[in-house]
Write a structure and sequence with these properties.
283 residues; mainly alpha; Glutathione S-transferase Yfyf (Class Pi), Chain A, domain 2
Amino acid sequence: MPGRRSTTSAHLRIPSPLARFYSHFPLLTLPSPHLTTPAPSHPTIWAYGPPPSGHSESLDPSCRAAQAYARFAGQKCEVRWIGWEGREGAPGGQVPALHTSEGDLFGGEELEAWLAEKAGGKDTTNDATHQAYLSLLTTTLLPAVLAALYLSPSTFAPSVVPIPSRPFLSSLAQIYLTWNNRSTRIDEIKRLRGGKVGKETALDLEEIEREAVEAIEVLEGKLKAQQGEGEWFGGGSTPSRLDALLYALLSIVRILPPKCDSTLRPALERCPTLLAWVKKHDP
């Protein structure tokens, strides 16, 4: 794989019950073919997907935010859709990631820095107001959207990654991996909210939804107050990471079916200014 990698790829651990099951079958390990991926003609974002029909951007919040940020910055980026297993080949095991036309591979903070540079906006690192609203999104609305997408029964929530038909043994493996992924998502939500992780700490979904609704109402008030000041959140003339994340989260909320969300979408629909802002920035 060409280019720079920010960290070493994480190793995927097989759950113990599955490992014992597979121990009864012979395993043949083939050597790596050492193939390289040529640099794309256009910057390419690696994102979970593809999304359901009718959507051009990933349903994963972080991936959709990266795609939206690139679009807001006027960058013509291709997309490489990957499944859950695909993150093992991403820089540092992080998705979204970016493969530039120069051959560089970026993930995490490097990806955010590349997008911010292309957007051409001011550095918001020391902007207290900007950081406060960014924190509001990441500690309230993001956990609620993640819970709706990843903790709801798979038959209720829209599929972030298509579910392929699998042979019997692969289906068993997928069940174990799904359980493991759910536990990982719960810990991720706890971390975002500043709480302790682990089974001993309960996750209060009602509280998460209530705080997310309050955040939506706060954001509606902020946008109303800034009308006529600028296109982007806070009255800015150029987009920022805050705009990208806000758009990603609210545009996903707009399509959540009632079976996996009976709170967030109705709250957004009661906020005409916020809803109009999201629609304005649709692809």
